Amino acid sequence: MNKILVAVAAAFVLVGTAVAAEAGPATMTFDTKNGKVTFPHKAHQDRLKDCKVCHADEKGGKIAGWSKDKAHGLCRKCHETEKKGPVKCAECHVKK
């Protein structure tokens, strides 16, 4: 019985680790000419629950064609539509 419990616990640890690895970083920082943009990836992931809102599929990974125009079109538009999150330049771009 103990061996079964240990095996089940080990399986949960391995699955949890694999899921966490696929989840992506908690935050991401992008260097832009207008200052650093820190993106709270985990907060968006927890809120949206669907990777395909931003990514090509549920596997995540790099967003195809990522650029200033893509970021403004995807991120800023969503913030404006949801009336939540930064929409002004200095709210995202931090110069130091």
The largest β sheet comes out as:
3 strands, antiparallel
Strand order of the largest sheet: 1-2-3
| CATH homologous superfamily (4th level) name | Cytochrome C3
Strand/helix succession: HEEHHHE
Instruction: Report Rg.
Output: 18 Å
Number of domains: 1
CATH class: Alpha Beta
Strand content: 5-15%
Distance between the termini: 58 Å
Mean pLDDT: 82
- CATH architecture heading: Alpha-Beta Complex
Number of DSSP E strands: 3
Net shape: globular
**CATH T-level fold name:** Cytochrome C3
Return residue spans where pLDDT drops below 50 for at least 5 consecutive residues.
5-10, 13-21
Number of contiguous helices:
4
Q: What oligomeric arrangement do these chains adopt? A: single chain
Helix vs. strand class: alpha+beta
Into which percent range does the helicity of residues fall? 40-55%
